[in-house]
Amino acid sequence: MHARRLLTSTLGSLALAFGLLGAGTATATPAAVAPCGFYETGSDAYYNHCTSDGSRVVIKVEVAWAPDYERCVAPGRTWLGSADEIQGAHYAGRTC
Fold first, then answer.
1. Listing from the earlier edge strand, what are the strands of the sheet with 86-95?
2. Measured between alpha carbons, how far is 23 from 96 in angstroms, rounded to an integer?
3. pTM higher than 0.90 for the full model?
4. Which residue has the higher pLDDT, 80 or 15?
5. How far apart are CA 2 and CA 12, in angstroms?
6. Lower Cβ count inside 10 Å, N or C end of the chain?
7. Pairwise CA distance, residues 86 & 81, whole Å
8. What is the four-CA torsion angle of 46, 61, 58, 53, rounded to 10 degrees?
9. 65 φ/ψ sector (left φ>0, alpha ψ -120 to 50, else beta)
């Protein structure tokens, strides 16, 4: 009887450990990281300037129903506006 309880306890502990490992791995997926450049979520448009040198760059923002414009962005994610209004954005080839 003691061996059966020990086996059940060991199997339960292993299942719990594997379950926790699987849950920890699932939360650290690269999909959670914002992509570099222009991207949209369900409702918002962003530009993510990926750099390790701290540079600021000029991007050209393409707007629906309004003139396009240029904007200086710092490293990291910049909110551009509603995904319904912003059609895209790209690096304009210079720093600011």
1. 69-73, 57-63, 86-95
2. 43
3. no
4. 80
5. 15
6. N
7. 6
8. 20
9. left
